[in-house]
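Chain A, query sequence.
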Amino acid sequence: MRVAVIGAGLGGLCLAQGLRKAGIDVEVFERDPGVRARFQGYRIGLADVGREALLACLPDRLHPLLDAVTGDLHGRRVFHDTQLRQLRELEPMTAIAVDRHVLRHLLLDGLDVRFGKQFTGYRGTRAEFADGTHVDADLIVGADGITSAVRGRLAPDLRPSDTGVRCVVGRTTLTPEFESLVPGFGTGVSDGEVQLMLGLMRFRRPPREAGLEFGVELPDTPDYVRWVLLPAPDVPGKAVEGWHPRVRALVEAADPAHSAALSIRVVRPERRWAPGRVTLLGDAIHATSPSGGNGANMALYDARLLRDLLVEKAVPEAVEEYETQMLAYGAQAVEHSVAVLDQFLPERAGPRS
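Chain A, predicted structure.
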């Protein structure tokens, strides 16, 4: 069996690792010219399903490295006014955090990834690329994100929906001053019109240092505060004028190379094709709002499920069973993420008397 994975994001790479672990021939094709061509995201919460999928698909020798480059999230969730006076407190939570960029580098280890390969279409199970090359496979998996070119060919009427919400996501290197802003699981600050959400990415060990012990090249990413402004202001610094000096300093100290304005879109999964030898995974078929915390975890779960079914069944039967399950839980994840996003908007999450 030969599998062609289109897209070298977390889900596609996790699938490739899982197939390789099972002895199945797999190649990954990525349109970016190289692994460092563009910034690949921020801290994400790693739920049990995501962590279990990674452990199932990664080589056993990399399990300690995965643990080393994650971080613990625990404690209370608090909301403050703009002068950091506490307004309310939610029940404590516990989770595991991982940096998307670091995790992607870990997942690349040992894989055959062809960069600079822009997918243009398929004929049967022959994947075609913009440079005139092609590859023949028994299965093509589109793991190429919310703007999936594979979905564009497989289900051209299935398009992303704009939630109408814009946000600015930033990353600021962690200092003792900024660490005090997030004493627990997470912190929210709001003036009733703009909501600022803060969370920490504190690695158990520095990623590059930990990677060297395992012969894996990981980025030299420092501990940081990930923050999100909702809705997106034209100038983030002006949105927090008059706020507490520590909050202003945090936003002003953000690394511009790792901060960006985002439009929040979702893909609501529907089967608009007959099951066959081309399928979709992750954001390509069920893109969630980031507020639900499910996007990466669902992509990783997709990868494990599809790998397990391909080991157990012939390709057509495996794909049909995978799509039946994936479309059901994917739809639930998308709707949950949209509901959570609504709760985070300032008029819902802002100051309350």
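The CA atoms of residues 167 and 262 lie 5 Å apart. Residues 348-353 have pLDDT under 50 and may be disordered.
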